[in-house]
Write a structure and sequence with these properties.
CATH class of the largest domain: Alpha Beta
CATH topology of the largest domain: D-Maltodextrin-Binding Protein, domain 2
Number of strands: 11
Shape: elongated
Order of helices and strands: HHHEEHEHEEEHEHEHEHEEH
Radius of gyration: 29 Å
Strand content: 15-25%
Distance between the termini: 73 Å
CATH superfamily of the largest domain: Periplasmic binding protein-like II
CATH architecture of the largest domain: 3-Layer(aba) Sandwich
Number of helices: 10
Largest sheet: 9 strands, mixed
């Protein structure tokens, strides 16, 4: 009869078999070693057989114990997995999956803001970074991108991109009064277009710029600029905190609009349309406040 099957002692028994001794099994289950011993004693009483041979601190499964362990270990793992899946499905209603193609924006701007959203709306954010276009039936709730789009979906223009030239204050002082051909420039391979756009807007021939260092991603280039490696042309949004803190300063005539916008898309296949819209509204408002004078 099912009511006579000691499920808790069976779970403890499997843990002991996995861990190899009572102490580690107790730690993995979050119970005391004496509780483990009591559960094993209960199971041995029900089975009317010894399940372990105890050799000091070590244990060894008896023939009956090995037979029982081989029989129930997979079933117990299946039960544990089923419970985890049910719990995960319930948790999905308390979290959003946000996909973005902009790792530097995510690292420098988005991630530091997410705690505020969670505190206000009691919803966790799972952040996924992927540079490829979304696949059909891919599971996510919101797409944030500058260069990707999500056809037939509700979209939000978060902010329009503007470039600035920044550098460490000491480097600016060092090159103050020098012609731009002598400015050491740092760039990012992930955005090779920015330096050329900025230079042409300033009437500067890009090929005459002095290249100092090249980094894979903008967040590396930003760190290099802070360290004094060179002047960096970068979206102003990504360095606003550094400008306010004074570790970077703008240098040059002003901001350059790229014509691009950071967009948010609500996945039409998301089961959490309302929550996704709420996140997009919050993100747009927060970014606008961030760039306000």
């Amino acid at each position: 009869m099912l009511e006579n099957v000691p499920l808790v002692p069976l779970r403890v028994f499997v843990a002991v078999g996995r861990q190899g001794n009572f102490t580690r099994a107790a730690q993995s289950l979050g119970i005391t070693q004496s509780a483990v011993s009591r559960h094993i004693a209960t199971l041995e009483k029900v089975s009317k057989q010894a399940l372990f041979i105890r050799r000091g601190p070590y244990i060894e499964l008896t023939a009956a114990g090995l037979q029982l362990y081989d029989t129930v270990k997979d079933a117990m793992a299946t039960l544990e997995m089923a419970i985890q899946q049910i719990t995960h499905q319930q948790d999905q209603h308390e979290r959003l999956r946000v996909r973005t193609s902009m790792p530097s924006f995510s690292m420098t701007v988005l991630v530091p803001m997410l705690g505020q959203f969670t505190a206000q709306h009691h919803m966790q954010i799972d952040l996924i970074t992927n540079l490829s276009p979304p696949r059909p039936n891919e599971e996510f709730d919101v797409l944030i991108s500058r260069d990707l789009s999500l056809p037939d979906s509700e979209s939000w223009e978060l902010i329009r991109e503007e470039l600035v030239c920044v550098a460490a204050p000491a480097l600016i002082q060092q090159h103050s009064g020098q012609a731009w051909e002598h400015w050491p420039m740092v760039t990012a391979r992930s955005r090779p277009d920015m330096l050329g756009l900025w230079a042409l807007d300033q009437g500067i021939e890009p090929s005459r710029l002095l290249m100092s260092a090249t980094y894979d991603h903008l967040f590396f280039a930003i760190a290099g600029a802070i360290a004094g490696s060179g002047f960096l042309v970068v979206p102003r949004l990504l360095v606003m905190d550094h400008l306010r803190d004074g570790v970077l300063r703008e240098f040059g005539p002003g901001q350059v609009a790229t014509g691009a916008s950071y967009m948010a898309y609500v996945n039409a296949q998301s089961p959490q349309q309302s929550e996704a819209r709420q996140f997009c509204r919050w993100l747009k408002s927060s970014l606008r406040q961030r760039i306000a004078p």
